[in-house]
Structure formats: C-alpha cells, structure tokens
Amino acid sequence: MKPYRGTILRPDSTGEYLEMIDDALVIVDDEGEIVVADSVSILCERGRELREKFGLVFDEQMELDGKPIPQTHNIIMPVTANTHDHSFQPPGIDGPLITGTPTEGFGGWLPKTLKNGEYIAKQDVGRSRAMLAMKFEECIRHGVGATLQFTTSSYDAARAAINIGNDKGVRVVAGYVAMDQNIDSIQLGLQEESGIALRATEALLDEFGAACVAVIDRFPIAVSSETRRGLAELARHHGALYETHFDEQDGVGREKDIHKSIYGTASITQTLVDDGVFETGSRVGLAHSIHTTKKEMDLIGSKVDAGCKVFVRACPSSNAQLGSHFVEGAFVPFPLRQWEARGVDITLGTDRGAGRTSNVFAEMQKEHGRHSIETRPSFIDVLRYGTIQGLKSLGVDIGETRVSEGNPAEFTIVELSGAGAYWDIGDHYGNLEFTAARVIDGGQDSSGIKALWVKGRQLK
Ligand SMILES: [Zn+2]
Q1: Which regions of the chain carry the CATH code 3.20.20.140?
Q2: Domain with CATH 2.30.40.10 in the chain
Q3: How far is the CA of 158 from the centre of ligand 1 (A)?
Q4: Domain 2-78+399-458 carries which CATH code?
Q5: Minimal CA–CA distance to 25: which of 15, 33, 37, 14?
C-alpha cells in the first residue's frame, strides 16, 4: 500500500470545479484502488476502523505498517491533459513540420513542401515506434495522463500511437489525419486519394473504439467536403471526437483566403456546419481557434445551444512559435472570454511539433500571462483548462478520475517549489487561487512532479 499525504485538489461533485482538502491522506492499495482519501482530521475520527482495516495508526504521528507518514507540501491533483499534440517530429527537420511514417498519402505531398522530404520518407517504421515511445515517456515525465495525438496520414502511425500509449499507460486518443483536398496551385497542396482517410478511421474505430480514436480533419481547407461529411458521420455513429485545426492564422493569405478560393463566400465555420460537423450530440475539438470572427463564434454558439459539445484548444507555445497571435503586427490574445460566453469549453494543447514543450503546466502559465487584466483567466481556471476540461473533451468520465475512496488511482502529485508553501490567506477562494498558482509553478519542472497514476496504474 502506498500512502500520500498533502493537499488534495480534485473536481467537486459536479465535475466542473476544483475543491481543496488541506492536510489530507490518500492510500492506494496493491490493486491500484484508492482505499483512503480524506482530511487527516476526519480520518482521525475513523481511527479504530482504519487501524483494523489497513493498519493505519494515528498516534503522536501517523503511521502505516510502522512507517511514519509526514505532512508534505505536495498537491495531489488531477492529471494534466494535453489536448493538442502531434506524433511525431523526426530529427533533422528545422521548423514546425509534423510527419508520420511513410505511406502513399504521406509521400504525395511532403516532397512538395520540404527539401529533405526524401530523407524523411526513408525513415523506417522501427524508428517511428521508438519516437512514439519517447513521446509517451515525455508525457509521463511531465505528469500528462491523457493526450490527443494527430498522427498524420498514416494508419500505421495512428495504430502504433494508440498501442504504444496504452502500453505506457497514458490515456491516448489518436487518429488518422485526413487530407484529400488537392490544390495544385497552392504550395501546401495536401494530396491523398479520397476515401483513404474514411477507411483508415473506420478501421481504427472498429479496432479500438471511441475512447482511443478521434476522427481527424487536418484543417478544414485540407479536406474535401465529401470526405468531411463521411468523417462527421463516422464520428456521430461511433460517439467519437471530431477534431480539426481551426483559425490558426489570420485571414491574410492564409486559411480564409484559401478557403474562399475553394468554397466561394461561405466562411470556414459555415462549411463545417454544412458538412454536418456540429450536429446535436456531436463532440468537436477545434485546435487554436484564435482568429474566429464574432459571426462565426455566434454560429458555433447556436450549435452549442442545440446540444453540440464544442471545445477549443488554446496552444500558447505554438501560437507564439508560429506567430498565430499576431494580426498585421498587433498582438491578439486567445479569445477565451468570447468562447466561454458561447458555452464553448477551453482546453490546452502543447502542439509539439510547432510548440516547444510537452508540459501542460508551462502552457497554463503562458496562457495566464498572455492576457491583459480584463481578459486574464484565474489560475484556478487555467488549471481546470489543463486538467478536468481537457480530460472531459477526450471523453473521460471525470467522476471515475476523482481522488475518492473506491476509485482507481488517477492523479499526479506536484511538490510545491521554493519558499512560502503555506497557503492559508484567509478565504477559501483566495487559498485555492494561491495554491493553483503555486502548483502551476511547481509542475513546470518535471522534477517537481513526484508521481503519476492513471487508471489505477503507477506510471511515475
Ligand atoms: Zn497542430
């Protein structure tokens, strides 16, 4: 049995907000089940029962099997969820290009966009598998318990990502990235035979189910309406997440212009709506979503009202690397208030490939720091974006991940760094906000992440 003493930060009974239990004790049994989780003062009242059941002794100090359990400045909190990432970026590439294992679809467009495409296309599957293993090991080091992986257009890469992620114990949702819109006039012409993505995605869903497979549209301009309709239908049929890159750059010479040249006057959002992406009962993830107009947000808001669950993935590292935060030289923050006003939930993604880290705590810190006082989210909010909202968007049942007796262990432990670990500053909200700020600081250094449990298995 493993005892952990510290402060519990966990979703409340609604699964929406975080609650805090100071000076708490959590015990995980040998099967990975949480058998004790409460404040020490309440557990003391259950002293005799706990002594008989688990050998837990409350005397001058607390002991389990004769070993003392000292109080710590550790926070026992939900695992972080990286809801936008890519597998994987082979070495030897300068710049933000994301690749998968070589297939016909992959080989078709890459040489057009990259000089050393030939080199990458020759990389063998063995190396790709090794890189996937490294990706998930990196997740574990950073306390990431769940992640969404765009695996580029390779069925093998998507399959390998799910299998290797499952082997390592991380919750992984991955998918074949569809891109069959052939546009010869545009440099980023993504070419693949129509139907490949549909067949690959359906095969993945049949093999692994919606808990592990997302239906992925590379970005709206890269997928034909015919394929998108098929993908949206597949997602609905299987209850799977529909995921795409969305409004990542400003309108000048980018997605919106290209979209116009293919679809005429309809907005990107309108095209997604027309192709059946935002139906009632659907779950949709939109990575980036930084330059969406008010009109398009209103349209998505009306779909949320009609029962479509929509999540936007703020990717602060990547938005800085790729210049997505800028319109004609002016800085534009991620429009989180505007999205939230329309019932859309915010989650965080590292977008590794374009981003520079796999650490979600670092993304929390960046997202918080990038706003003016009017739009700045609280530390508690960014902690929610990076944990429970992200997990929910990947289809995880929050109730099952809560640190409470009878549940499989699923939490990460962050040691508060530096001085001033004492957080009682008078009121409950103030204590929570201060703790959230400290935990985000502590989690940015992987050495501050002391443990990671996912689905009853200890990964770190
Ligand atoms: Zn991306």
Answers
A1: 80-397
A2: 2-78+399-458
A3: 15
A4: 2.30.40.10
A5: 37
| Contact indicator for 84, 315 with CB cutoff of 8 Å | yes
From residue 40, alpha-carbon distances to 18, 74, 411 in Å are 19, 14, 19
Residue 326 Cα to ligand 1 middle (Å): 17
What is the 318 CA–ligand 1 centroid distance (Å)? 8
Q: What is the pTM of this model?
A: 0.91
Six-digit token string for 24: 């708490």
- CATH of the domain spanning 80-397: 3.20.20.140
379 C-alpha to center of ligand 1: Å? 25
Question: Which residue from 415, 448, 411 is spatially nearest to 80, judged by alpha carbons?
Answer: 411
Res 312 pLDDT > 60: yes
Q: Please say whether the beta carbons of 136 and 161 come within 8 A.
A: no
Q: Which residues surround ligand 1, an ion (CB under 5 A)?
A: 351
Nearest to 113 by CA among 84, 131, 133, 93: 93
Burial class from Cβ neighbours inside 10 Å (0-12, 13-18, 19+) for residue 329 reads exposed
CA of 147 to the centre of ligand 1 (A): 13
Q: Which tokens in the block code for residue 245?
A: 């890159």
pLDDT digits (tens, 9 = 90+) for 179-228: 888 666 554 445 567 788 899 999 999 999 999 999 999 888 888 999 99
Rounded Cα gap, residues 53 and 43, in angstroms: 13
451 alpha carbon – ligand 1 mean position (Å): 28
pLDDT per residue over 13-24, tens digit each?
Answer: 999 999 999 899
At CA 129, angle to CA 167 and CA 208, rounded to 5? Answer: 50
**Given pLDDT bands bounded at 50, 70 and 90, which one contains residue 46?**
very high
**Ligand 1 mean position to 21 CA, how many Å?**
36
CA 347 to ligand 1 center in whole angstroms: 14
The token pair at 88 is 């994987």
128 CA from centroid of ligand 1 (Å): 19
- Dihedral in degrees, nearest 10, Cα atoms 275, 397, 376, 245: -30
